[in-house]
TrEMBL record:
Keywords: Glycosyltransferase, Transferase. One of its GO terms (molecular function) is glycosyltransferase activity. Residues 23-149 form the Glycosyltransferase 2-like domain. Belongs to the glycosyltransferase 2 family. InterPro entries: Glyco_trans_2-like, Nucleotide-diphossugar_trans. Residues 1-22 are annotated as: Disordered. This is Glycosyltransferase 2-like domain-containing protein. Pathway: Cell wall biogenesis; cell wall polysaccharide biosynthesis.
Length: 403
């Protein structure tokens, strides 16, 4: 662990604490212009410098990085955990998480600049009494990966300091579209560009990031899904925000990794909310989820029921059966389904309707779609058939409803 400015954790401890109030956890590689601005904003925090630390998980060995950290050695308590390996944001975050000693963790991407009172207000208003909450920060000037960025105008910190000060002076900041949406699937809004929660929650439940995600996207949603499973409320912070800093971006490259990452998420946690996020995207799934759940129950034709996907494996071949009606306990029945899977097959039941499937292209030998799936509304029905065709190595069999 390289440590341009490391003091004894006890030096930052207040009464009743073993470490600083806040650890700002940042994954980093090759974004020096962004890091310079992020550190400058952190150095301007009104929270005393001995009450927070900046912990960076760094996946490069760079003299330029260390030189920049040294510039702030007298203003910030910086902890760097270095590893020379290919970029993986979850791995970098885990390096920093394991080194953090603060009572509260602020997970922040390097392309975020915080207003001067951010950390002090965050701690005093949301965590000083030991609250157990996961607070999602607003991202100002973020367009959610809607367009390429091929050139960046690097502006000095003084420009962003004025932007931050003007926003803070203008009253409540409500510029993130997630604030106006219904929070039906709370984890779908928990983007780790800026998010805060107690460190005890992370250590107590092993809430590190899954290293099996690669490239852009989804690793934060899967992490937030596990946070939600602990029963911890995930809420948007109206008084917790930062300004997103520009950087180069290729939407096409991001999409190429986002799709398989979503499938991995769905395979790990098969559920209707996850499959809908996989099919539509996180923000859109949150809006559509109540309607989708009603549509699935109606298609199943069972009060309180749902649809499931069965994967039957026999003689080394996988047969997928999509649109299987199940009751409220997840049980399926019927001679037709039993005949399709066969008496000798090992059967896995996935509690999903099939609008997204957690398999690669041509991953199953054959796929059968049952009539219940065809009873879904048009857009969902089309996605079921498209996914079935994508994963099946042979033509999809569609069973017709009996008169």
């Amino acid at each position: 662990m390289s440590d341009p400015q490391r003091s004894d954790p006890g030096e930052a401890a207040g009464p009743g604490r073993d470490g600083p109030k806040v650890s700002v956890v940042v994954p980093y590689r090759d974004r020096l212009d962004n890091l310079r601005l992020a550190l400058a904003a952190l150095a301007d925090q009104t929270l005393p410098a001995d009450e927070f630390e900046v912990v960076l998980g760094v996946l490069e060995l760079s003299d330029a990085y260390l030189a920049l950290c040294r510039e702030y050695a007298d203003r910030l308590r910086i902890v760097s955990v270095l590893a020379e390996r290919p970029w993986q944001v979850g791995y970098a975050r885990n390096l920093a998480l394991r080194a953090a000693t603060g009572e509260v963790l602020v997970l922040m991407d390097v392309d975020m600049a915080l207003p001067a009172r951010c950390l002090a207000d965050l701690y005093d208003r949301h965590f000083a009494a030991g609250q157990r909450v996961c607070l999602v920060g607003q991202m100002i000037d973020y367009d959610n990966n809607t367009g390429d960025v091929t050139e960046v105008d690097v502006r000095p910190y003084e420009y962003y300091r004025k932007v931050l000060d003007d926003l803070a002076a203008g009253g409540p900041v409500e510029a993130d579209p997630r604030l106006a949406a219904r929070h039906v699937i709370p984890w779908s809004f928990a983007w780790t560009a800026l998010i805060a929660l107690p460190r005890a929650l992370v250590t107590g439940h092993g809430l590190t990031f899954d290293p099996n995600f690669h490239g852009y996207g989804v690793e934060d949603l899967e992490w937030a899904y596990r946070v939600a499973r602990t029963g911890t409320p995930i809420t948007m912070g109206r008084d917790f925000w930062g300004v997103h800093l520009p950087h180069l971006r290729s939407v096409a490259a991001n999409r190429r990794t986002e799709a398989p990452n979503y499938r991995y998420f769905l395979g790990k946690w098969p559920a209707h909310d996850v499959e809908l996020a996989c099919a539509l995207g996180d923000f859109e799934a949150n809006e559509a989820y109540p309607e989708f759940r009603r549509a699935v129950e109606e298609a199943a034709g069972i009060p309180g029921g749902s649809l499931a996907v069965l994967r039957a494996t026999a003689a080394g071949e996988h047969h997928l059966v999509v649109g299987v009606p199940v009751d409220a306990t997840g049980r399926w029945a019927g001679a037709e389904v039993s005949a399709l899977v066969g008496p000798d097959a090992a059967v896995e039941v996935l509690p999903i309707a099939g609008v997204a499937l957690p398999y690669a292209d041509d991953a199953v030998h054959r796929c059968t779609v049952l009539p219940a799936a065809a009873r879904l509304p048009g857009a969902y029905r089309e996605r079921v058939f498209a996914e079935a065709e994508r994963v099946s190595a042979t033509p999809v069999q569609v069973l017709e409803s009996r008169p």
